[in-house]
């Protein structure tokens, strides 16, 4: 079992014994690092690695209008949207959860749950995730599927909600209507 201080990394490769700091393509201004995610935000990574996704949830200062517009009737604490074309990959992907001690990590973004270490890190545990759709259904999240993430991205950018846009470089670029 993990502790509240444990951090996670998700990979389709079950053989990693040491994580070495590397540059992040979406954050070129940051020094090379090992990235990890906190337990509360970990479901954002229960997806194929290259799957574009948008996760969003309420912040203390989110407006009632944005809460109703984006979260509507959902009782979930977080919504994760993916593109329809990734559904078959979601079903077929074998993902592994790596657990790290938080010793060498610092928090980069608390609402997003992102932690960084500038030192190499060895996992304290690795375990297969199994059925990812089942895993997502066991969390306090709602999974939404859409032909394109771009309209949601554009709308969330001006909202008062917290959002994480992951692997958007792989999002559907043409209009699919």
Write structural notes for this entry.
By secondary structure, this protein is an alpha+beta fold. The protein has one domain (about 5-170). Helices cover about 15% and strands about 25% of the residues. The protein contains 4 helices and 10 strands. A hairpin with a 4-residue loop joins strand 6 and strand 7. The longest helix has 8 residues, at about 65-70. The termini are far apart.
Spatial extent as radius of gyration: 16 Å
The largest sheet has its strands arranged as 9-4-3-10
For the sheet with most strands, the description reads: 4 strands, mixed
Beta-strand share of residues: 25-35%
Note the run of SSEs as H and E. EEEHEHEEEEHEHE
Q: Give a count of the beta strands, DSSP E runs of length 2 or more.
A: 10
What is the residue-mean pLDDT, rounded to a whole number?
93
Topology summary:
Elements (H helix, E strand, L loop, with lengths): L6 E5 L22 E4 L15 E5 L6 H8 L6 E6 L3 H6 L3 E5 L5 E4 L4 E4 L7 E4 L3 H6 L3 E6 L3 H7 L5 E5 L11
Parallel strand pairs: 4-9
Antiparallel strand pairs: 1-5, 2-7, 3-4, 3-10, 5-8, 6-7
InterPro entries: DUF6886 (IPR049253)
Pfam families: DUF6886 (PF21820)
Quick synopsis:
The protein is of the alpha+beta class and 177 residues long. Helices cover 15% and strands 27% of the residues.
Short key terms for the protein model shown above:
single chain; 177 residues; alpha+beta; 10 strands; 15% helix
């Amino acid at each position: 079992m993990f502790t509240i201080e444990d951090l996670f990394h998700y990979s389709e490769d079950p053989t990693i014994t040491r994580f070495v700091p590397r540059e992040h393509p979406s954050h070129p201004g940051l020094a090379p690092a090992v990235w990890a995610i906190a337990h509360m935000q970990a479901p954002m990574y229960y997806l194929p690695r290259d799957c574009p996704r948008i996760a969003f949830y309420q912040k203390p200062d989110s407006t009632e209008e944005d809460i109703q517009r984006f979260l509507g009737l959902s009782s979930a604490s977080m919504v994760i949207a993916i593109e329809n074309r990734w559904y078959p990959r979601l079903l077929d992907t074998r993902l592994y959860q790596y657990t790290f001690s938080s010793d060498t990590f610092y928090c980069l973004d608390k609402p997003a749950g992102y932690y960084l270490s500038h030192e190499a890190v060895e996992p304290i545990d690795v375990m297969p995730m199994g059925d990812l759709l089942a895993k997502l259904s066991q969390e306090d999240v709602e999974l939404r599927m859409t032909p394109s993430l771009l309209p949601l991205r554009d709308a969330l950018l001006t909202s008062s909600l917290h959002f994480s846009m992951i692997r958007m470089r792989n999002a559907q670029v043409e209009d699919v209507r």
